[in-house]
Structures are given as C-alpha cells and as structure tokens.
C-alpha cells in the first residue's frame, strides 16, 4: 500500500480521466431526469470530486448526483414548488448527515450480508448493460443513468431495449461497436504490453469516436450521429455565463414544515445509498481497505451542504462511478479528486470538444464496467457457497432489476435475515473481548455459534486491535461460523501485515474474497 497518494499518480490520473468520461453524461442526465437545471448535476459532481474525496476516508469511492434520488427530487419540486426550495432541503439533509456521522450511525452498513452486497453489484452490472444498449445503438435519448425498472417515459428496462433494437441508428451503432472492440483489445493486450497500460482504453475510445464522428459528417452524411446522441454541455464563454451557473437556496423555505420532510427523506435515502456503495467498494478494493463509515456520513453531509448552497443536486457515494474507478486502476483518492477537477475544467473550457463525443462510445465504456460487475464467475462462486448465500444473492438481483436499488436490497436483506435467524435458532452468542496476556498474544475466542449478526462487533474489535501486536483468533470451539464473519476475518488477515500485526488463526476456515 502506498504511503503517499502522490506515489500512484501514474495510475490515479488515467483512472480519474476514465471516471470523468463516465461521470460527465451521468451528471447531465440525472439533472434532466430530476427536473433540475442542467448544470445542477455538474456542480454536485465537482463538489463530490474536489471536496468530498478529501473529507471522506475512502480511497476509491466517487461521489456525485445519484439516479436513486431522481424520483425524490421530482416529487420534492412538486411539493415545494421551486428548485431553490429543494436546495434549502438539501442543505438541511446535509446537516442531518453530519448528525448521523457524529452519532456513529455508519455502523448500519455492516449489517448488510455479503450475499446481498454482491447481488447488488451483479444487478447494477446487469442494469448497466441493459440500460446502455439503447444508447449503444443510438435509438434512445433518455437520460444516461436511469437505474429504475419503470422509467419516467412510461417504458421499462426490457421494453426500452426492445424498442431500441427496432430503431437502430447506423452511425451510433458503428461508433459503439468500434469503441467496444477497442476496449476489448485494450483489456486483452494491455496486460502484456507495458506501453498500452499507460493509456486508458476509455481515452482512446473517446478520441477515436470523436474522429470517427467527424469522418462520418464528411464522408457519409447519411450515417451522421444526431445531436441528441452526443454529449450536451452548456457553453460558458464569459464570466457572466459562469456566474449564472449557480442557483442559491430559498431561505424562506426553512419556515415550511414540508421542507423538513423532504430534507429527512433525502438525508436518509442518500445515507443508505452511500453506506451500501462504500461497503461494495471495499469488497472490490484489491487492497481490502476499510472505509470509516461514520466519517463517510460526515463527508457526504459536507458535500450536500455545499451542493445545496451552490445550486447542485443532492449527492451520494455512487457505485457506478466508483467501480469504473477501480476497474480503471485507481489507487487513491487522487483519482476521484482529479475527476472533479476535470469536470470543472470541462465546464469552463472544453465544451466544444466534449460535445462531439457520441453517447454510444460512452455506453461502450459502461457496458465493459457492467460486465466486470456481473461476471459469470461471481454466480459460480455464490452457487458453491450453498443456498444460504446463493438465494439472497439471486433474490437481490431479481428484485433490483424489477424495482430499484433500495427496494431490491431491502427484499434481499429480508431473505438474508431469514437464513441468519435460522442459523441462530436456539444458539447463544458470546464474543470474548481481547485481553493482553503476559508473554502471550491477544486472544480473541469465538463462540460456539457465530452468525452475521455478530459481524459488526467482531469487525469493531479487529479494527481496535493495537498495531505491532501478536493476535490469536481462535475458532476451534465454534461449530458454526457464518461466511460473512469468515470473510471479515480474511480481510483482516490480508490487512494485518500493514499494521504490523502478527496473526495466528486457529480453527478458522480461509475463504476467497473479491480481488484475490
């Protein structure tokens, strides 16, 4: 693990560029779907990258406007009557998140089973693939991160794909196929050619797609890509244009009870989405770093307060951008920070170039991200773990595909809890606290039955173990140790050398964790 983020600039800057290319159309699209000013999403993305990345304790998570909040914002605009009033509610929601962080409510994230988190990741991968097919073939002008099954235009995920395949735009489809071929080539050959690893495949895709689009304009006008299938960034040519970007809260909204109801809804939903996202990001992190969840709530609170004050949408930690960051080789918070700087730069200087990027090229990037989140090996792994891991995993996927992220995770959690309660039936639980022994290691002895319900307290004890110590984790008397606890212990084993901890496991089965 690098001692300083500046040591990994060679990986973080290209990853930040990839995240920027993914985030730009998402920020614009979510603004459109939310009924907010177009630049509200860009402002939230800039704050998420430039500010939240440094306040957060996560090295790989990327924050910005979230598709899961679009329906809430649309409803809030109707309830409160203006976007300025919604900004006031966003500020209050940020304050609520600060309170949750101080109250140490971040521990809620540890109570989501691994099977449900993996199901959420796989479902997001499938949704990315299904939702990007219309953009990939140039047959849909819907916004770019519509993650719900029922869309605001009356269609659903599957009908939108069917409709898209009946109205393919040849130019967009050609650019999409070329872009996908480039990404596949880059993924395969960059592992063997050091020079290719220095250039992100997404950058090559963007440059080639711009060139191909320009070539089609001249050589084959019939294949010209329509404007609605290109990135659309407003033009800022003078200081007056820049100052008009910002919208400020309506402070009189603080006197209306409805504002606080909206604020509470935004604050709770944004916090839950954030905790789910950082839990998933930690599982994808090859270095198995653990995000301090209470600090993450504080960081999101700061971000939402600033976003509300400057005219931006509410934000969360976002798994789509975060997974793109990880897949692009991001190592530290520098990649998220750099993506925020690029969003700011694009807003000020790069509008003419960026507005030439076909959405089908960016869809190809997201298709690759989606596939990596829902690889067939993930399904095989869960199947081999047995029904108590596989069934919540599959139920979560299906529920998210047919509803939305939070509803799907809730349904999967209910199934997971059933198995947890079944495993804990008539089983007492105890966890002996570590106590330093004279001349011996710190001895952590597990009880006879260790379930997922015990995961949070075990993780807490492991995180509080002093550095440079000897530790014995003893499960020799345990007749049952839940997979989630085994995974938490394995993550601790992988990170123990970084803390100088000499670890011995007794009666603990080692399990495979993502990234290893």
From TrEMBL:
Report the domain of life of the source organism: Bacteria
The Gene Ontology biological process annotation of the record reads: transmembrane transport
TM spans, by residue? 12-32, 38-55, 86-112, 157-186, 198-216, 258-276, 297-320, 357-373, 393-421
| One Pfam family cited in the UniProt record for this chain | Sulfate_transp
Keyword Membrane annotated: yes
Q: Which InterPro entries match?
A: SLC26A/SulP_dom (IPR011547), SLC26A/SulP_fam (IPR001902), STAS_dom (IPR002645), STAS_dom_sf (IPR036513)
UniProt main location, coarse: membrane
User: What are the alphabetically sorted keywords of the record?
Assistant: Membrane, Transmembrane, Transmembrane helix
Query: What protein does this entry describe?
Result: MFS superfamily sulfate permease-like transporter
Q: Which organism is it from?
A: Hymenobacter luteus
